[in-house]
Amino acid sequence: MSHTCFQNCVNNFYSRDLASDEENCVDLCAKKHIKVNHKVMGVFMELQPMIINKRMEEMNQAALQIEQAAAGALPQDQVVSA
Fold it and tell me: Is residue 15 included in any domain, yes or no?
């Protein structure tokens, strides 16, 4: 984010301080990136529990198949490895 905002906004290297237009540009750029990050994290937080539940179900099913294969209920070639 800092690299992108710097490349897009800073164009005057004659002073150590940012010009007011550069400072405004950097602020807007940073706010935009932060807003996008918040949206992405919000979607991630919504979807993560579903992904975890799905993986747990897959692991439980694989464990059940392994147990059944060990008990001789399934042929060994039908066992799905976890």
Answer: yes
DSSP assignment of 12-62 equals --SSSSPPHHHHHHHHHHHHHHHHHHHHHHHHHHHHHHHHHHHHHHHHHHH
8 Å CB contact between 12 and 22:
yes
The pTM for the full model equals: 0.57
Question: What CATH number has the domain bearing residue 33?
Answer: 1.10.287.810
Q: What are phi and psi of 11, to 5 degrees?
A: -135, 0
Q: 13-62 pLDDT, tens per residue?
A: 888 888 899 999 999 999 999 999 999 999 999 999 999 999 999 999 99
| Size of the chain in residues | 82
Look at residue 23 and tell me if it is in a domain: yes
**Residue position matching structure tokens 């975890």:** 52
Q: Which range marks the domain in which residue 37 is found?
A: 1-68
